[in-house]
Design a protein that fits this description.
This protein is of the alpha/beta class. Helix content is about 40%, strand content about 15%. Strands 1, 2, 3, 4, 5, 6, 7, 8, 9 and 10 form a ten-stranded mixed sheet that branches. This is Phospholipid/glycerol acyltransferase domain-containing protein.
């Protein structure tokens, strides 16, 4: 069984590498010659292939932003897998520490996703990054900020940092945007099951990547284990206006994510699962305020 598992894992990795090679060229060209719809959707397609190959079953609920609405997404952070999951749902970009750019595989994926890298050791880095994020928000893009500033075990939420939430104010003061408010979007990522059973505390470190865990062994362990169930909960949006206190808004987002995380881990949230989640999000991008929740959907 162990040998067969290794062979199956290797086959999935080869298939993903082949697809990755097919996608990278067109994506780089789309970024160089105009960041249109293709540049946003190619990484999304790449992430969806990864999720399907490695049996990551995404359950989605709540109300994501409508198409063309800029939003600063404030999410909890559990694993490197979070990037692939969120990137497979919507065209978006991330904010990440500069060290990630040099990581194998994940660094490449981050660059393809137009990640905004921040050098925490450089003075003035926050202001520069806030300006870059603000421009994207004003242009109607989604930008994901893992507001804890690090990864956790997926059970407890660390305090949200408010410094980069100042990017929402940058978007409002950008003269080209003409915006009255920016949407702060709380999102909870809850890893709830493995191989069709509730995830135990013993199994959680096989998914959550935190502390001093090394990346390569964690990737290997992930690839050899069974299917993962993950719930993505889009919380109620928070309006960020010129007079909004960023620390208060950040605290509101933190409270919303904490409650959604508790509810999802306790099984109190239902939604659209697997490929249906991605399809529901695709349909929603053409409608305002559509709710992707749908109880009673079977696994795919």
């Amino acid at each position: 069984m162990h040998v067969m598992t290794r062979i199956a894992t290797a086959a999935r990795l080869v298939l993903y590498a082949l697809f990755f090679g097919l996608i990278v060229g067109p994506h780089v060209l789309s970024l160089r010659y105009g960041r249109g719809g293709l540049a946003g959707r190619l990484p999304m397609l790449l992430h969806r292939v990864f999720l399907r190959l490695f049996s990551v079953r995404v359950i989605q609920s709540g109300t994501p932003p409508r198409a063309g609405e800029g939003a600063l997404v404030l999410a909890n952070h559990v694993s490197w897998l979070d990037i692939i999951v969120l990137g497979g749902l919507r065209p978006l970009s991330f904010v990440a520490k500069s060290e990630i750019a040099g990581w194998p595989v994940i660094g490449t994926l981050a660059r393809l996703q137009r990640t905004v890298f921040i050098d925490r050791a450089r003075r003035g880095a926050t202001a520069t990054v806030n300006s870059m994020i603000g421009e994207r928000l004003a242009a109607g893009e989604l930008v994901v900020l893992f507001a804890e500033g690090t990864t956790g075990d997926g059970l407890r939420l660390l305090p949200f940092r408010s410094s980069l939430v100042g990017a929402a104010r940058e978007a409002l003061t950008d003269g080209t945007g003409g915006l009255a408010r920016i949407r702060l979007q709380p999102v909870a990522l809850a890893y709830t099951g493995r191989s069709g059973l509730p995830l135990t505390r013993v199994e959680r470190p096989e998914i959550a990547w935190y502390g001093d865990m090394e990346l390569a062994p964690h990737l290997d362990l992930f690839a050899r284990r069974g299917p993962i169930d993950l719930h993505v909960v889009w919380g109620a949006p928070i309006a960020f206006e010129p007079g909004t206190d960023r620390k208060v808004a950040t605290a509101q987002a933190e409270a919303a994510v904490r409650q959604s995380l508790r509810d999802a881990l306790a099984g109190r949230v239902t939604g659209v699962q697997g490929a249906r989640a991605a399809e529901a999000t695709d349909r929603q991008t053409g409608r305002e305020g559509a709710d992707v929740s749908a109880p009673g959907i079977a696994a795919v």
